[in-house]
Amino acid sequence: MSNRTKFGLLGKNISYSFSRKYFSEKFEKLGLKEYKYGNFDIPEIEEFPFLLYHREDEYRGINVTIPYKEAVMRYLDAIDEDAKKIGAVNTIKVTDDNKLVGYNTDYYGFQKSIEPFIKEHHKNALILGTGGASKAIAYALKKMNIDYKFVSRKVDENMFLYSALNEEILEKHTIVVNCTPIGTHPNIDECPNIPFQFITEKHLFFDLIYNPEETKFLSEAKKRGAAVKNGFEMLQLQAEKSWEIWNS
After folding, report:
1. Taking the CA atoms of the chain, what radius of gyration do you get in angstroms?
2. Strands 100-103 vs 91-94: parallel, antiparallel or unpaired
3. How many Cβ atoms are within 10 Å of 31's Cβ, its own excluded?
4. Catalytic residue at 93?
5. What is the pLDDT of residues 188-204, one digit of tens each?
6. Phi-psi region at 91: left, alpha or beta (left = phi > 0; alpha = psi -120 to 50)
7. Which of 24, 105, 167, 189 could form a disulfide with 241 if both were Cys (CB 3.0 to 4.6 A apart)?
8. Which ranges carry the Shikimate dehydrogenase substrate binding N-terminal domain (predicted)?
9. Tens-digit pLDDT profile for residues 104-162
10. CA 39 to chain centre
11. d(Cα 151, Cα 154) in Å, to the nearest integer?
12. pLDDT of residue 1
């Protein structure tokens, strides 16, 4: 395994990438001069196998981000039990015999990051968005015995429509997690369309976005006394978990 010194991030339009900066700085701190972390920025997931072809023995690990956390699964040789249940992969380990094994460290990062904020009355959550990240959030909440409902623009009997959110729903669901990209830099004036007038100091708002540090979603909730947390610590925790997996 010692000759495997390459790592990467698979995604689309990822020049802003947290992972590349994070791991490049980590390698520097650890004195791992030969280690490299690059971006696989591809327009279609179908290009993924060609990227790795003939180069698997150089790679040790790959992170996966929007929009490929679900689509990448069909190219993997094995999938960890948690990732299978979640239905999304954000970490790939390349084994000694060049097999690609998928894991999910998002749920771990989210759970560890939100746990210190959970109070007795936080029994129900709203998850905004239905992509790969939201599945990991749902899995973590389930592990924490917190009931949840997805909020979407699509009509589905198991979800709330944004337009259906009212005082009664928000009074019951005191955790609100934003898994959409709405409000990410540079679109910092945008915000998921929820009725903030029903938010109180009983609420806990978590935004997976970390740039800007305080999104409009968080600042609107904070104005009304809610506890707020952005996604930066979650990202760090899931990255460290990936590192652990690649080196285990």
Report:
1. 19
2. antiparallel
3. 7
4. no
5. 999 999 999 999 999 99
6. beta
7. 105
8. 9-92
9. 999 999 999 999 999 999 999 999 999 888 999 999 999 999 999 999 988 777 899 99
10. 17
11. 9
12. 45
Letter for the amino acid at 113? S
Q: What is the 3-state secondary structure (H, E, C) of the chain?
A: CCCCCEEEEEECCCCCCHHHHHHHHHHHHCCCCCCEEEEEECCCHHHHHHHHCCCHHHEEEEEECCCCCCHHHHHCCEECHHHHHHCCCCEEEECCCCCEEEECCHHHHHHHHHHHHCCCCCCEEEEECCCHHHHHHHHHHHHCCCEEEEEECCCCCCEEEHHHCCHHHHHHCCEEEECCCCCCCCCCCCCCCCCHHHCCCCCEEEECCCCCCCCHHHHHHHHCCCEEECCHHHHHHHHHHHHHHHCC
pLDDT over threshold 60, residue 173: yes
Of the residues 6, 26, 29, 69, only one is catalytic, namely 69
The residue behind tokens 């009983």 is 202
Question: Phi, psi at residue 150, to the nearest 5°?
Answer: -80, 150
Per the structure block, which two tokens stand in for 194? 């929820």
**Hey, what domains does the chain have and what are their CATH numbers?**
6-104 (3.40.50.10860), 107-234 (3.40.50.720)
